[in-house]
Structures are given as C-alpha cells and as structure tokens.
Amino acid sequence: MVRYKIGALSRPAFRWFYLGRVISLFGSAMTPVALAFAVLQVRSGQHLLGFILAAEILPNILLVLIGGSLSDRYRRDRLLLFSNLGSGLSQSGIAAIVLSGASPYWLLPFAVSNGVWSAVTSPAMRGILPEIVECEDIAHANALLNTARSAARIVGPPIAGILVATLGGGVGIAIDAATFFIAAICLHQVHIPSHPAVGDSSIFRELREGWSYFRQRRWIWSITVAFTLMNAVQMGVWQVLGPILAKVTFGSSGWGVTLGVKAVGLLIASLAMLKIQLRHPLRDGMIAIAISGIPMFVLGQGYALPYLMIAAALAGAGSTISAMGWDTSLQQAVPKSILSRVCAFDEFGSYMMIPLGELFAVPLADAFGYHTVATVGGIVFVVIALLPLTDRLVRRMTPGDLWKLNQEGNAELSGSLQG
C-alpha cells in the first residue's frame, strides 16, 4: 500500500520532471484565454484568431514525425530541456507584441515557432515516462500529471480572464514565458539512466519502421482516426467559435470561468484515477471522451451559463479518463525503443485536420449560423467518439493484454533487427 501511494514520486528524476511540468502547466493554462481575447480586440480579430491558431498547429503537424524519430534516437531529457527554452523565447516574443500594442500579424511567426518546439516536446514528453518511472507506476505518473494539468486549468483561465479585463492579455502570456524557463531549469536535473544509441539508419528509415508498427495495429490507428475528426470539430467549435459566442453573451470572464469549471471536472477525475484502474482502458476512454460533445451542443443551443458550466465539468472529467486511458495504454503496450515514433504518428493523425477546423469554423458559422454550427458539431463529435467501439479489441482490451502486446512488440522488433 505504501508503495502505491508513493508510486512514481519515489524516483528523483520523475520528481524534477514533475515539478518542471507543473510550473509550465500553470503558466500555459492562462495563454488560450489571454491570447484569444487580445486578438479579438483588434479589427477582424475573429478571423485572425483562426489563422494564428492554425499557424501554431501546422508546424506541429508537419514536424511531429521528425520530432518522434528524434525522441527515439536521442536523449529525451535533453530534447525537453532545449524545447522548453525555445518555447520560452517564442512566448516572450508573443508577450512583447501584445504588451507593446504592435500589429497582431507579427504574432504569426512566433506562433509558427511555438508549433516547431511543440513538435519536439510532445513525443519526447509521452516517451520519457517509461524511462523515469517503473513500468507498474506509469498509470500513477499519468494520474499525477493529469491532476497537475487539471489544477492549472482551474486556476489559469479565471486569472487570465481577470488579467484581460484589467491589465491586458500580454501579462498572462509573459508569465507563461517565464514558466518555460523555470521548467528548463528543473529538467536540467533530470538524467535518464540510458538513451538509445544513434545508429547508422536514417531518420526516414526509422520513420518507416514507426509507420509499419503503427499501421499494423488497428486498435491504435482506429482511435487515432476518430481523434482526427473529433479534434477538428472541437478546435473549430470550442476553441474558435467559443470565445466569439462568449464575447457577445457572457464575456471573457464568463468564458474563463467556464474553462476553469471544466478543469474542476478534470481535477476530480484525475484524483479519482490515482486510485482507480480502468478494466477496459480503451473502451472506457472512448465512452468518456464522447461526453465532450455535450458542451458544444449546449453552447450552440444558447443555454444559460450555468448549464454550460455543468456540461463543461462533465466533459472535463471525460477528457481526463480518455487521455489517461490512451496514454497509459500506449506507454504500456508499445516498446520504449519505438514509443515516441508511434506517439508521433498518433499525434500527426490526431492533429492533421485541426487547421481545417480552425480555418473553416468562422466561414461555416457565417454561412449557416454560429449556433447551428456549434450544435451540429457537438452531435457529430459524440457519434465519431463511439465509432471505434465497433472494434472488438478496443472494447475488450485489459491492462494485462497491454503488457502482452509490449512483450510481443519487443520480440517483433528484436527479430526485425536480427534479420
């Protein structure tokens, strides 16, 4: 019992990693609200917001596969250190532009820079856990990280909403920049026990190996395809249309509180997951994520703010269960030597349609109505989330099955290398 309570925190490397991640998460939680309302204050801001969000996600999509290969090829702790420094510099540039009142179009190159660093950060972040915690503590480590992320989302958005209404969004973004630098200092203390040796094979050959592993496992790619469509809908409706609808109804403070309440659901679910193990992580995760379509429907139907807050809280809980079930499944089932590449293909597929969702959200809303697009988006989201359950393996996969898949994968990769 004592071992389980300490879990991942018994490892010094994870403690430093966790501290840096917590600090960074609290800063980053303020940026979406601060940046969105800073851009919406300028002429044609609602159209520019979509372009800025797309400018950040596009480099991520285009380069995340390279980032995954680099993360399997070199030390993940060093890659994370450098990517946090780079993200801190990019956010500093965005903060300077917003605070100085310069043309918001100057935000675009810094948004691109953020996307580039994110392409390295995410695969390394998801791949490093099996290297800094024991295998049996991976679920516990994910629960701790999700708890911190949820707590940050509770505190960050309301503070950002207040800062927007008083000092302006640039202050919140500047705080976010500072947290990246502090996180880099923490990551400097993280030293993984070993790292892959750089072989003679090219990055592109390694990418082919990752793609081969990914496409041969239907339980992985079927869920990735679902998130391809779900993320496009959610980012277009919730991320772009959400602040626009909020601006003409309950304002930036109300939107910030809604995001904070959603984080309460995230936090409650994260705390519960510290003690609960999903019997069927893939099935339970897809059912849970389907709930995230409800707030979009409520937003589209124009229900009062309290109803939106309740729906957002439920969606937050569902998102946490889904994210933890998915990440833990990949980290337990996929061999460490190829994990970052598989995660990169998952992210590439999951993110590839997001720019279309962000770019076409406003034009579609102008053509068919903002409330109509939000309502239909919520319904479509729920249907797509439940489609992977038609796969028997997705419905019945257990934690024990995941460990068997890991052993089979290691044997397959070992045989491939010997051949």
UniProtKB/TrEMBL annotation:
GO terms for cellular component: plasma membrane. The keyword Transmembrane helix applies. The keyword Ribosomal protein does not apply. Gene3D superfamilies: MFS general substrate transporter like domains. Signal peptide: none annotated. Pfam families: MFS_3. It is a multi-pass membrane protein. Keywords: Cell membrane, Membrane, Transmembrane, Transmembrane helix, Transport. It is found in: Cell membrane. Its main location: membrane. The chain crosses the membrane at residues 21-42, 48-67, 79-107, 159-187, 219-241, 253-274, 286-303, 368-389. InterPro entries: MFS_trans_sf (IPR036259), TM_effector (IPR010290). This is MFS transporter. It comes from Ferroacidibacillus organovorans. The lineage of its organism: Bacteria, Bacillati, Bacillota, Bacilli, Bacillales.
